[in-house]
Amino acid sequence: AQSVTQLDSQVPVFEEAPVELRCNYSSSVSVYLFWYVQYPNQGLQLLLKYLSGSTLVKGINGFEAEFNKSQTSFHLRKPSVHISDTAEYFCAVSNTDKLIFGTGTRLQVFP
Amino acid sequence: SAVISQKPSRDICQRGTSLTIQCQVDSQVTMMFWYRQQPGQSLTLIATANQGSEATYESGFVIDKFPISRPNLTFSTLTVSNMSPEDSSIYLCSVVLGDETQYFGPGTRLLVL
């Protein structure tokens, strides 16, 4: 069975600082990996995805993530955050059509 | 990408009543799903909405409580039946487009009193 662990439930950070949101997964087979963002009172928006190929994936809004198969990780990074990045971030894994979500990380950016 | 809409966007309902949520996509899609997001929680898959056949429910969800219809490749409904306050959640539909990627509707925020 697959599972996703987001180690940090909340990440406070000051504006223009770098940030890393951690995601580890468990699966016995090859998987697809995703990061979604949920802004307050909105649905989920796809940030980026890893399906195959280059392990460094770039997404929208300046975010990127690196797939590390040996460490079964897919951490999300941004070199300089903005106030508008304040949101809930969900890591997800699938190897079929079904998505398994992590518990989410609340990113709070302070001025 | 596709435009995915949901109706209603939010509702407040009395316990014991039922609410039907609609999901509309502006292109034909094979795979469509319904999720629940309880307050402060992550997303949990309720069921896969299959066109022309009965939905496939995940463990813990049953058809009597969450009947689903999928009359065509662009539309689906989820009904939350005999509601209780524990059903207060955000309900989201999603579709698979192209390369194994799910895209989500804006969600329906339900409060049951």
Question: Averaging pLDDT over every residue of chain B, what do you get?
Answer: 94
Q: Structural class of chain A, please?
A: mainly beta
- What overall form of chain B do the CA principal axes indicate? globular
Unreliable residue runs of chain B: none
Number of strands of chain B: 11
Radius of gyration of chain A: 13 Å
- Calculate the terminal CA-CA distance of chain A, rounded to whole Å: 41 Å
Order of helices and strands of chain A: EEEEEEEEEEEE
Based on secondary structure, the structural category of chain B is mainly beta
Portion of residues in beta strands of chain B equals over 45%
Query: Measured on Cα atoms, how large is the radius of gyration of chain B?
Result: 13 Å
Oligomer: heterodimer
Proportion of residues in β-strands of chain A: over 45%
**What is the helix/strand order of chain B?**
EEEEEEEEEEE
What's the end-to-end separation of chain B, in Å?
37 Å
- Round the mean pLDDT of chain A to the nearest integer and report it: 93
Query: What is the global morphology of chain A?
Result: globular
Helix fraction of chain B by DSSP (H/I, runs of at least 4): under 10%
Extended strand count of chain A: 12
